[in-house]
Amino acid sequence: MAVHIAPSILSADFSRLADEIAAVADADLIHVDVMDNHFVPNLTLGLPVVEALLKTTTLPVDCHLMIEDPDRWAPGYAEAGAASVTIHVEAASAPIRTLREIRSAGARAGLALNPGTAVEPYAGLLSEIDMLLVMTVEPGFGGQRFLDVVLPKIRRARELIRGRDLDVWLQVDGGVNAETIERCAEAGANVFVAGSAVYSADDPGAAVRALRERAESRYTA
Ligand code: DX5
Ligand code: ZN
C-alpha cells in the first residue's frame, strides 16, 4: 500500500483555490474539508465549490464531510466526480447504505472516526470501505496540535485491516507535519492529510515532497 500525501486546502488562500491546488501538483490527493457549522463549529464550502474545483485539477479530490446528515449529501459528491468521499460515523444514521451509495457512484468510500470514537465497534464495516480516517485532532479547524493519544488507535486500526486482509487505506488528519508524520507512518497510516504544514510553507510543493520522504522512511506496507 503506497504512501499518499493529501494537502488540505482549508489552509490555502480561498480567493485563489485553483492556483493553490496547482502549487501542489506533486500531491497524491487534494483534501477538501466540507463543514456545515452543525457537526463542527465552522463553515467552509459545499458541493458547488467542489464541482468548480473538479474542473480545475486532474488530481483526485478527497472530500471529508464534517456535516450532519451525510446520508443525504454524500452521494452527490461522489456523483460529481470526487475520487473519495468520507463520512463521519458519529453523524451517519445509515452508514452502510451511504457507503454503498458512494461506491456505486464510482468513488472510494471513507469512514471517519473522531479522536474519542473507538475503532473496534466498526471493525465489521471495514469490508464496506476503501479508507478509514482516524482524526488526530478534534475536527473543525486547521492548525491544531496533533493528539498523540490517538496513536494506539491508528495501530489498532491497521491491525484490524491486516487481520482481515483488506486493501483499506488508513488516513490521518490533523496536526500532521514534519515532526509528527513519522509516528503516524510507524503506527500504520498510509494517507496523510496536511493543511498548515503544506500551505504555511514557503514552497508548498517542496513541503509535500519532504512529508512524503519522511512517511516513506517509516511506513512498512
Ligand atoms: C480539520 C480538518 C483538516 C485540517 C487539517 O478538521 O479535517 O483536514 O485542514 O489541518 P492541519 O493539517 O493544519 O492540522
Ligand atoms: Zn479533513
Describe this structure in words.
The protein is of the alpha/beta class. It has one domain: Aldolase class I (TIM Barrel, Alpha-Beta Barrel), CATH 3.20.20. Helices cover about 35% and strands about 20% of the residues. The protein has 8 helices and 8 strands, in the order E-H-E-H-E-H-E-H-E-E-H-E-H-E-H-H. Strands 1-8-7-6-5-4-3-2 form an 8-stranded parallel beta sheet. Helix 6 links the parallel strand 7 and strand 8. Helix 5 packs parallel to helix 6. About 50% of the residues are buried. The site of D-xylitol-5-phosphate has 22 residues, from strand 2, strand 8 and helix 7.
The CATH topology is: TIM Barrel
Rg of Cα set: 16 Å
Q: pLDDT under 50 segments (min length 5)? A: none
Overall strand count: 8
